[in-house]
Write a structure and sequence with these properties.
By secondary structure, this protein is α/β, with parallel strands linked by helices. It is built from 19 helices and 15 strands. A seven-stranded mixed beta sheet has the order 3-11-10-9-8-4-5, sandwiched between helices. It has a four-stranded antiparallel beta sheet with strand order 12-13-15-14, with helices on one face. The protein is globular and about 85 Å long.
Length: 501
């Protein structure tokens, strides 16, 4: 395998053989500087790469070390590389005008057109909320990351690798390991009264993948499907990307308004997506009567229900309402759950419970895509649940969430008063919704906050109707209590700057 030192040496030898008059007029250190710079521009030396030490490169090129030092100093001045004590010289992520753009490449080489599906997803990708924000205040969708017991997980992981056999390092079943599926079947039985066969459980990387799989298995382009308005932007993006004909239904204090599904203008839907445990982003919980009403409607109209079980453990902890899946007598419900919002997003484990008639098609699609979630993570998660660590973690999450919510709301209301009003919700959730004053655009406000390391999600993005309500969705749980006041103070100053622009 060729390393950076060898690559520079080969380029140097080539330069020496084909040196131009212009190059000969430059000093040797300038020639080496230009050689390395061109290699960075052309991605011969990728960003993040560590350059050879000055002593090693000088010896390889048979030049003095001071010559190489001068070359590196010039690269530092021009911002191509950076120097850190003990780490040497590293190539920076610097774009150059010499680098060809994607558009130029497309025009130059005449690539074929994207598929209609590819174009559709490309058009709608902006609907998905960013997942790579470095800052966590006040990003929704995150649990209190600081209370996750890393040592418990690390010990279980170490135990797994200590006793692993070579036979366990091969491919795993696409739908998940039997161990985790059996553990989840038992967990769902006790926590949600869901009685299912472990074979019905499909292990995925999260809810977004679940949506993509079910959408592809059930919907052809042009098929009608329905979801709540508002809902997750990711839900909107997936079904728009799949080129579905989208219909919406509003919510009231009891959840999804089933009566709207029977209105003359509503066309028969093949699939309906709902968030009954804790509607996103309003926090409304669907009543038992409304759940039974929805199941009755679905049975009569032969419609499949996606039950997205958002934040169940947090808001359904004491005042339990049966899930749609457990109430369903016709296997018409697909149940979505995830551990990414309960433990931490980097775990990348979610699950579906699907009717038997969908199993073969879902597994076939998995075999054609991601194949399987790593077995090591599945085994460790299974043991994490079996040893009651998950139960204890949930209790801690609820306790910390309540403490931080009170501090957040008190501080927020004291800082913003009537200018940004928090919408009251009787349901426990890991985020709050703030209504924006008329005339202000939540999208512009969120962008302004993001430039100053404050993260919020736009309420308007959760709607598919024109002139949507404006608001901010704020996650308080991942922020430690001492930081909450500090960040709200910073947010208040940014808000005043924003409205004066």
């Amino acid at each position: 395998m060729e390393d950076i030192l060898s690559r520079i040496y080969v380029a140097y030898q080539e330069m020496q053989r084909n040196k131009t008059l212009k190059q000969e007029q430059l000093g040797l250190y300038q020639q080496i500087h230009n050689l390395i710079k061109n290699a960075i521009v052309n991605n011969e030396i990728p960003e993040g790469s560590t350059l050879p030490s000055t002593r090693l490169l000088a010896a390889k090129l048979h030049v003095s070390r001071s010559t190489v030092l001068k070359s590196y100093e010039l690269l530092l001045i021009e911002n191509w590389i950076e120097s850190a004590i003990g780490s040497g010289h590293r190539v920076k992520a610097v774009l150059s005008e010499n680098q060809p753009s994607k558009i130029q490449n497309c025009d130059k080489f005449g690539y074929p057109d994207l598929s209609e599906v590819g174009k559709s997803f490309q058009r709608n990708v902006s609907l998905i909320n960013s997942t790579d924000d470095k800052d966590i205040a006040f990003r929704p969708g995150l649990p209190p990351l600081d209370i996750f017991n890393v040592n418990q997980w690390k010990n279980l992981s170490n135990l797994y690798w200590r006793h692993i056999k070579s036979s366990a390092l091969t491919y795993s079943g696409s739908s998940g390991t039997d161990q985790l599926k059996k553990t989840l079947a038992s967990y769902l039985n006790f926590s949600r009264n869901i009685k299912c066969d472990p074979r019905q459980i499909i292990i995925v990387s999260g809810s977004l993948q679940s949506l993509y799989i079910i959408g592809n298995v059930l919907l052809n382009p042009g098929d009608y499907m329905t979801f709540e308005n508002p809902t997750f932007p990711n839900v909107i993006s997936i079904f728009k990307g799949l080129r579905s004909n989208i219909q919406t239904v509003s919510i009231d204090q009891e959840g999804l308004k089933v009566s709207e599904l029977t209105q003359p203008g509503h066309i028969q839907s093949k699939l309906i997506h709902t968030v009954p445990s804790c509607h996103y982003p309003t926090g409304v919980r669907m009543s038992l009567n409304r759940r039974l009403e929805l199941l009755k409607w679905a049975n009569e109209h032969k419609t499949i229900i996606i039950e997205n079980d958002y934040e169940h453990e947090v808001n359904n902890y004491k005042d339990f309402i049966p899930s749609l899946f457990s109430l369903d007598t016709e296997q018409r419900t697909i149940f979505f759950g995830t551990f990414n919002r309960l433990l931490h997003p980097s775990i990348r484990v979610g699950y579906m419970v699907v009717p038997f008639y969908l199993l073969d098609a879902v597994e076939a699609l998995l075999n054609h895509s991601h194949r399987f979630v790593p077995s090591s993570i599945q085994v460790v998660l299974s043991q994490f649940i079996e040893k009651n660590y998950l139960y204890n973690h949930v209790k801690n999450v609820i306790e910390i969430a309540e403490e931080r919510k009170k501090l957040f709301c008190d501080t927020f209301e004291e800082s913003f008063g009537e200018s940004l009003l928090l919408r009251p919700s009787p349901i426990r959730s890991l985020h709050v919704l703030a209504e924006v004053s008329p005339g202000l655009k939540d999208k512009d406000m969120v962008k302004y906050f993001a430039k100053h390391n404050i993260v919020a999600h736009t309420y308007s993005k959760c709607f598919v109707t024109e002139n949507p309500p404006q608001g901010l969705i704020l996650g308080y749980t991942p922020v430690r209590s001492p930081i909450i006041k500090q960040k709200i103070g910073q947010m208040e100053k940014l808000y005043k700057e924003f409205i004066q622009k």
